[in-house]
Design a protein that fits this description.
This protein has 291 residues and is an alpha/beta fold. The protein is built from 10 helices and 10 strands. The longest helix is centred in the middle third of the chain and has 16 residues. The structure holds adenosine monophosphate.
């Protein structure tokens, strides 16, 4: 496994790999890896011949009062995990390597970034699409894998790729959960033991939504109301949003026809957590993950 913090190294290595006919897979992360990230690496290995992982806590996607400074970091541990997975290349640049001078060029996807998480994290998705566009230009990957955990992020990146003709296929990976249902997240380390228990309310509320859907409920408001009710039954939980939208356009649904994304964001204490389920009528079941 090659590890570097230099863009020039990445360009040389990728050029060589492409010359020998390899299909390049990229998994962008912010590190402090867990099974969710590692599942993305496994999926990338299935769809490509050379798997690269980037580890970069991207300052421009954090708001001024968010957790950039205290975001968990452990590169040594991450490298061990990636080595075990058979990852081929790791790019772990400094902020200076990624942003050597004042950034005057950004990439912004309109409209679909104004809702869900975007409504509460102004500028967040502009930071994400800008860094992902940079990573796509650095790696020129054939495929890139993103987690359904960040459902809005996948929709936004897919739109960016479509609108700007990036020659990369975006692959969406299912949500990986702890055995008790909590969606894995690097931010789960912020939770104390009481909060960790309380955090289960997120997956529980989505389970209730799934039950309603399985019983034939298609009215989005009825589902949203139920999810809110379950979330509000937990005293440590402060709901930021509960939404039922189309998974690609992120348009609010009133009645669920073929597909729906039920997405939630809550504070458990001071920790902001997100979770979602993706419903597809044709399967009469949620797809992409098992709670
Ligand atoms: P992050 O390091 O949080 O920026 O996440 C890097 C990538 O891993 C993103 O595409 C996330 O959607 C994905 N990811 C994070 N948590 C999970 C999870 N529990 N299951 C699947 N993918 C995940």
């Amino acid at each position: 496994m090659i590890v570097t913090d230099k863009i020039s190294d990445i360009r040389n290595i990728i050029k060589e790999q492409k010359l020998s006919g390899k299909k390049i897979g990229l998994v962008p992360t912010m590190g402090y890896l867990h099974e969710g990230h590692l599942s993305l690496v496994r999926i990338s290995k299935k769809h490509s011949d050379f798997v690269a992982v980037s580890i970069f806590v991207n300052p421009i996607q954090f708001g001024p009062n968010e957790d950039f400074d205290r975001y968990p970091r452990d590169l040594e541990r991450d490298l061990k995990l990636l080595e075990k997975e058979g990852c081929d290349l790791v790019f772990a640049p400094s902020v200076e390597e990624m942003y050597p001078s004042e950034l005057l060029t950004t990439v912004n996807v309109d409209k679909i970034t104004d809702k869900l998480c975007g409504a509460f994290r102004p500028g967040h998705f502009k930071g994400v699409t800008t860094v992902v566009a940079k990573l796509f230009n650095i790696f020129t990957p054939d495929i890139a894998v993103f987690g359904q955990k960040d459902a809005q992020q996948v929709a936004v990146i897919k739109k960016m790729v479509e609108d700007l003709n990036f020659p990369v296929e975006i692959i969406k990976a299912p949500i990986v959960r702890e055995v008790d249902g909590l969606a894995m997240s690097s931010r789960n380390v912020y939770l104390n033991s009481e909060e960790r228990k309380a955090a289960l309310i997120l997956s529980k509320s989505l389970k209730e939504a799934e039950k309603l859907l399985l019983n034939g409920e298609r009215n989005a408001n009825t589902i949203i109301k139920k999810v809110n009710e379950v979330l509000n039954s937990e005293p440590l939980c402060k709901v930021q949003y509960v939404s039922c939208v189309h998974p690609d356009t992120l348009e609010d649904l009133t009645y669920i026809k073929d597909k729906a994304l039920i997405a939630i964001a809550c504070f458990i204490g001071t920790t902001r957590l997100i979770d979602n389920i993706l419903w597809e009528e044709k399967y009469n079941a949620k797809v992409y993950d098992e709670i």
